[in-house]
Amino acid sequence: MSINSQDLWKQCLYLIKENVSEQQYNTWFKPLVFEKYNPSTKTLLLMVPSALVYEYLEEHFLDLLRKVLTRIFGQNVSLTYRVVVDKKNHLTQDIESDNEGEIISCEPRTNANQSPTVLDSAIPDLDPQLNPHQTFSNFIEGDSNKLPRSLGLSIAEHPQSTQFNPMFIYGPSGCGKTHLINAIGVKIKQLYPQKRVLYISARLFQVQYTNAILKKTVNDFINFYQTIDVLIVDDVQEWMTAKSTQDTFFHIFNHLFRNGKRIILASDRPPVDLKGMNERLITRFSCGLIAELERPNVQLCSDILKSLVRRDGLDIPADVIQYIAETANGSVRDLQGVVSSLLAYSVVYNSNVDMRLAERVIKRAVKVDDHPLTIDDILDKVCNHFNVSASEVNSKSRKRDLVLARQVSMYLAQKYTKMPTSRIGKLIGGRDHSTVIHSCSQVEERLKIDKSFGNEITSIENSFRLKK
Questions:
Q1: What's the pLDDT score for residue 106?
Q2: Do you find a cis peptide bond into 166, omega within 30 degrees of 0?
Q3: How far apart are alpha carbons 11 and 5 in whole angstroms?
């Protein structure tokens, strides 16, 4: 073997030490003496100081021993104890371990809701619980995320560096925090597949910890998390009222930090605003890199939309993309919801995506209190006020009441939407932009001299439940 067998046993002891308490290690494992290892028969012989130690190891630590041996020496290792039965006369007895030759499964856990145990910690392969679709390649860069994205990529490429550790990312809901921390984890696994990377939400961590308390396996729970190379925790603000969870994570954090392991945290607020969080945790959250993710601006929303549209094979006109980007509240999550809805509508009804469809989807996909009025909203209120129908307003009729309703609709559309006049004209009667400009001018002039007309406009605006 290229590596000395005794050195391999030292690696086993190191791993065991990481997964048991100090007292357990000193009492049951430190007295063990490596005798020899036969690679041809895959047999490991350990000297045990007494029958009591042998019996205790077999009863309480057999699974741990076998998993550690499997990890360091390989599969199907046979363990034999040389038990000292008479220290005075130097008499020993060789005893084979129970369940000899048992093959230990190295499959990752599939049930993420179950608290990890000390036995899991010896498994070479760990399911990182990452979303493989959230990568740097589809995390679109913009002014609001350029710095966190660049630093996150640097950390992913050099996770062993102690610089910027921990990385604490914060920002409002929907700005891309979860995507970014997933992208960091995915990149690390691509570049360093041997590293134990784990993504977990703060809430799931707390559920696992509660289960560990109920099962009286808290030490196992802590030991498992102390074996992680890159720990990624999302939504840490969930712990603000969970003092016991905070205390436990504090010990895990300290162990990982002292051993040069990478810690990445995400929250909807900076560390100083985590009211109720233990001060010593806040201090540790703040000792590395604090990076803010802002809501994407209109340009970034537009770029994200174009990327989503290409991904889903949709054909959306540029002005519709611009309209969605301006009305989705700067939320990446809302943008994804709008695109998914547009895709569903276009497939189910076999129709093209146009401005009117986009308006309907925005109205349903974006929070009502936040989205601006649509042309349909405005036409509905104006037609109700003047007691005419939308089809009449959109017709070519030059009747006085219809012309007035049409002009008021165009005026309010320009005031309460971000659409260009050409788009407003097209959606209200198929007119051109000059007609919209003229209509708005007519309404504005009349408002200056006609108080009763002004009261009518105010009445319509009040029905929108929007402030002027």
A1: 29
A2: yes
A3: 10
- Spell 312-331 as b/e; 16+ CB within 10 A means b: eebebeebbbbbbbbbbbbb
Task: Using alpha carbons, list the distances in angstroms from residue 393 to 26, 382, 456.
Answer: 88, 10, 18
- The whole-angstrom distance between residue 402's C-alpha and the CA centroid of its chain comes to 52
Closest CA to 329 of 374, 364, 298: 298
245: left (phi over 0), alpha (psi -120 to 50) or beta: alpha
Question: Quick count: other Cβ atoms within 10 Å of Cβ 35?
Answer: 16
**Residue among 246, 241, 234, 248 at smallest CA distance from 201:** 234
- Range from 33-42, 309-318, 420-429 carrying the lowest mean pLDDT: 309-318
* Identity of the residue numbered 286: S
Q: Which two tokens stand for residue 377?
A: 């909203």
Q: How far apart are CA 217 and CA 223, in angstroms?
A: 10
Band of pLDDT at residue 373, cut at 50, 70 and 90 = low
Residue 194 has pLDDT above 60, yes or no: yes
Task: Look at residue 385 and tell me whether its pLDDT is greater than 60.
Answer: yes
Separation CA 32–CA 4 (nearest Å): 18
Q: What is the pLDDT of residues 220-242, one digit of tens each?
A: 888 889 889 999 999 898 888 88
For tokens 């971000």, the residue is 418
Which contacts (CB < 8 Å, 24+ apart) does range 121-125 have? 121/18, 121/19, 121/223, 121/224, 121/226, 121/227, 122/15, 122/19, 122/64, 122/67, 122/68, 122/70, 122/71, 123/67, 123/71, 124/71
- Structural tokens at position 100: 């000899």
Q: Burial, 5: exposed, middle or buried (Cβ in 10 Å; 0-12, 13-18, 19+)?
A: middle
Q: Which of 91-100, 300-309, 355-364, 446-455 has the highest mean pLDDT?
A: 446-455
The DSSP element (H or E) to which 51 belongs, if any, is helix 51-60
Question: Within 10 A of 307 (CB to CB), how many other CB atoms are there?
Answer: 16
Tokens of 321: 């993309």
* pLDDT at site 121: 41
